[in-house]
Amino acid sequence: MGLSDFNDEVTMTNQQKVKAAVYLHAVLRNIEQLCELDSRARSIVANSDTSVDFHIPGIQPLTLIFDHGSCTATTEPKTKPTISLVFASSKHFNGMIDGKANPIPIKGFTHIKFLTDEFTQITDRLTEFLRPTPEALKDPEFSRISTILTANVAFSALGPIARYDDHGKKNAGRIPDGNILVHVEDGPELTIHAEGGALSLSQGRIRPISALMSFDSIETAQGILSGELDSFACLGKSRLKIRGRIAMIDNLNKLLGQVQTYLA
Questions:
Q1: What is the pTM of this model?
Q2: Which of 23, 140, 145, 170 has the most CB atoms less than 10 A away?
Q3: CATH: 3.30.1050.10, 3.30.1440.10, 2.40.70.10, 2.40.10.10. Which one for 157-263?
């Protein structure tokens, strides 16, 4: 193997790691929010009292705790998860996401039916909102939930990208410490906290606010986050407004530009 081949392999391995971290900590994590917002999702796990933890080498583990219609996502170690899933590599986990590989259960063999039944149903429901059809978006409530979940996934993905992606680390390192408020008119508010190059997401408005990214409607937020609308064009038409420390927004946008690379 030549040096260039080795470098290519290292790059591909790192991309697999970032993708796995994004899907674990941005996509699957948002099952928590899905259960809060969607009655159908709650009904899928209405009778569930099950916790599932995911272990991928080199990535912070995540546990999803299902409790009769609700879901809590946590990175705190759970002493006795109902089901414990281990993956040999990031590529192995991504294979599961793509439907081409199976996890390795090291605990909870008697509860595997939950994975093939309720868990599969609720991840399918999440996909409906994250990859909506034009017809489905005609329903105002569906569109609202879709936008909230899309925003949550997109902005939750910034943390893993800032942590594991080489370009992401550089862009995140250029973001001054502080809070960036993401506001959607008649929709959600999210706060991105930047500290020492690390990014974390919280629901709602957390003060003090250093910078603001404001969408004039749910439709604008949905369009920009899905890539159907150009953010610069929306800025020119005041459909998207930015305020405060522009350096924060500028480097945040560079990170946002990487999100679809890993979610495509």
A1: 0.90
A2: 23
A3: 3.30.1050.10
